[in-house]
């Protein structure tokens, strides 16, 4: 028998029950200044460096970042500069996406601070990867695939650095207020869930407790206040402009017609459209058609824009499921509309979650850098073979949606967009249903039902091979880019399997 | 891009070498258009080229370079007399023969842009079998008159009526001038509707977004189509019954009524507004 | 003879800016190409320049092409226009003498 901290006698163990650990008392402070309850050390630290130290950062660790601040982000560069100054090397960068502002990453790659990137690249970083700068290939994952990999442990994030538009002293992180407000923190939430250590970097420390937050304090280790986390003008745009290019408008309207006649265009209809010019315009045309037909839609998911908000407030859709807020109207709506809900990357697209939103989608309108005659879609490399884009939610949305519509002009400059063989397959053809160009609509032959629905409705249906031939007639036959032996990118499918590899562009 | 000219749904596309092109670029424009005509087959629309008038330093070369490529039509600006047409006709014939084209195969659309030209509409329209349609240029015309352009366009009522009249006498189409404000959709629609009612067969536009609007204005309404179908049916019934006179709603259907009904149906067919079994969009 | 130059086109999307220099002193046709479509269409572009100059009976010239996605017919048009302008400039100089 032993005596515990309040003088009670306890047996050391009881048969059938585990060993008993006796109560030993609370750690308390001095009694003459009042009792201090047992609590953690303060989370608010003076510097990012201190936060990294307390997180026991070491060479070779994996550091993750979210991309909700888009091209206005200052935190990735800030964090890498701090890590470089601390003398760290061979780090693995795991961003959910990168933007042109992150070209500073290359400096750290060349100096050995960053060894590899997992998740996504863009612009200058992608170009450098294509040219063979990295020792290890970039592992490209979709939004859903990235979370899946974190969940299974294939991607072990040691430290998640979370740019936090607002944070309180316990690390409750919000996205809808502060000078660097970005709206949804959907990707950041998943990082916070799975990383071993989580550092919130904020320019707006608010009083505890925050009344509205996206990421709870229970997941956050440290809070570092800084001067600025982002450049507001480049985080969200005032408004995203619908394309005014007449050619792209033709394509957008055609896409809307296809959706209208496809059979999914009924009450409860849900959709996701990219924020790119043609997709945004297609949403406008769909909106008109919904009004005309008196259709009451279900949800809009994905990246939320002013237009999505207007459709919600107009009553055309019930709900917005927001994984990324693209403009100030979207941010404001998230803060005030009950039916505008934030969703995490996992909720959105993770195959390993207990059901994700893309599985419930009726239609997705997506772009491409190339489409081939097997309906495979490339979004990672350009026609010249340069790795220039992360995967985003493309393959996730295409897999889930009942009707996946790819919108693209037939040519971009002198390059055909419809080819025999895509340089890189990002999204497999068996998840793609229709390709809409200004010269006609090609329907995947597997979708006989869709072909039947679209027949005789005044939609110019063409064979995808004819589109490819027409493109080549206009441009001439392009020479394929020259690739070397070195693999510079691995394109993972959403389930972790490898759908393609990208070679070094010579 | 020239290659996309026929993608916007227009029935005819005009490549302009005249007023849209600064003097220093006339040579460049001519060669670009010539090359485009050589390279692209433009299946979706008929191609017209507005050349510079023969009285300018550029006109003749425009004809020499463009006619051999056999566009459907040459749009001839600043036409004032039948002679303007005849000179163009002659030059085109020479070029067609030299190029191995069938003489007379390239049409002409004269554009009348002055008071003097407006006084010769009939002669211009009848000047040559090449003339396929009569067009007038509102901006230059009103400037020549010293008139002011207004939105309602009353200042053009007279010339519009005379263009239609001259076109009908000559058996050619009447085509109306452009509506410059590309942001004013309603204004365009109203003007297009008005000129259709005056008897015009079509209207020029200057931006792809105007195409659909003009098509709408020139597409008869469901009511009009309905009525026209009933008229035609009554005529067919009368013919089948060998009765001399067709009657609809107690009224006799005479020749002009029948003609109007057939025109409505032709327009609606062209617009694709009619379906088998009367099912309509 | 002094070098004459003819220029045509622009750097706008789907166009090409072409300069043709005549009477540079070097023999034959030399062509410098730059632009996003060159790696995919270099051979076709060189043919386009060669054929266009040949049709104008130009044997010695220095040509620079800065393209921004111009299709073949546009490139040929720009080369032809630039070449004709150079020829006209040369004639102009000849007249003045």
CATH architecture type of chain C? 2-Layer Sandwich
- Tally of helical runs of chain C: 2
**Number of helical segments with 4 or more residues of chain B:** 11
What is the strand content of chain B?
5-15%
Radius of gyration of chain B: 21 Å
Biggest pleated-sheet summary of chain C: 4 strands, mixed
Q: Assign the CATH topology of chain C.
A: Ribosomal Protein S5, domain 2
Shape of chain C: globular
Labels describing this entry:
heterotrimer; A: 506 residues; alpha/beta; Glutaconate Coenzyme A-transferase; 2 domains; nine-stranded mixed sheet; 15 helices; 27% helix; C: 97 residues; alpha+beta; Ribosomal Protein S5, domain 2
Structure write-up:
The complex is a heterotrimer of chains A (506), B (281) and C (97). Chain A has two domains: 48-235, Glutaconate Coenzyme A-transferase; 246-481, Glutaconate Coenzyme A-transferase, CATH 3.40.1080.10. Chain A has 506 residues and is of the alpha/beta class. Chain B has two domains: 2-218, Phosphoenolpyruvate-binding domains (TIM Barrel), CATH 3.20.20; 222-278, no CATH class. Chain B is globular and about 65 Å long. Chain C contains two helices and four strands. Chain C has helices spanning 38-55, 72-96, and strands at 4-8, 16-22, 29-34, 61-67. In chain C, strands 1-2-4-3 form a four-stranded mixed beta sheet. In chain C, helix 1 packs across helix 2 (72-96). In chain C, 40% of the residues are buried. The mean pLDDT of chain C is 94. Chains in contact: A-B, A-C, B-C. The interface between A and C is medium-sized, with 12 and 16 residues.
